[in-house]
Amino acid sequence: MENTIESSFSLVSLITTTVLLLIGIIVYVISKRNKNNKNKKSVVMITGISGVGKTSLYLCLQNDTITETCTSMVENIGTCHDTITKQPFEIVDIPGYGKVRGLYKKYIESAKCIIFMIAGDEVKKTIKDDAGYLHCIISSNTNNIPILILCNKSDIPMSESKDIIKILLEKELNKLRVRVAKPGEVIADDDLYMYGDPDDEFHFEQLKSKIEFAQSSVKENDIDSVWNFLSGVGLK
Question: Which UniProt keywords apply (predicted)?
Fold first, then answer.
C-alpha cells in the first residue's frame, strides 16, 4: 500500500515538474520573441533606376547633408531617426543598375514602406524603364505596403511635375499589367490583368496599397515630402 502511495506521489511530482518546466520554456520563448520584435527596426526601402538620386537621398536622410555620389553596385544599409518621434529605423538603398536592381526582392517582404524615385528632368526619356521597374515592385508588393513615388530634381526648370509623371506612369503600367500567355495557356478574362480594375484603364487609386506622389530636390536638401510620408507610415 505504501509503495503504491509513494509511486503515485512520485508520478504526480514528475508530472508537476514537467508541466512547470514546459511553462517556463514557453514563457521564455514568448518573452524573447517579444523582445526581438520590440528591438526590430522598421525597414524603409529606396529604389528606382540609376541616376535618380537614391544614394543622395539615403545619405541626406542619415546625415542631413548633401553629398555627391556615384552609381552603386551593392545595396547601402544604415540607420536613420524619425525627426519627430526620434525612433530609429533601417534604410536600404537598392542599386538601380539593371543587373542588380533585383536586390529589392531580398527586402520587400520585410519593408515597412517603399520610396520609388524618378528623375523629373529625364522622365520622358526613361519612362519605359521607370514603369518597367515600378511594375515589378507593384507585382511583388504582396503585403500592400505604402509606396511613395518621389519625383526628384524638381529644382531643374524642365523637370516634369508629379501630376504629369503620374499620368505617364499610368499609361505605361496599363500595358505592362496585361498577362502574357505561355504556349498552350489560356488566360481567363478575370485573370488577364495582374493588378488594377480589369474594366477600366489603369489608375494608381485602384491598387490595394497606398500610393503617394511627391516632388523633391535632394540636391537642395528639399526632402520635407519624404519625412511627411515616413511620419504617416508610422515607423517604430
Answer: Endoplasmic reticulum, GTP-binding, Magnesium, Membrane, Metal-binding, Nucleotide-binding, Receptor, Transmembrane, Transmembrane helix
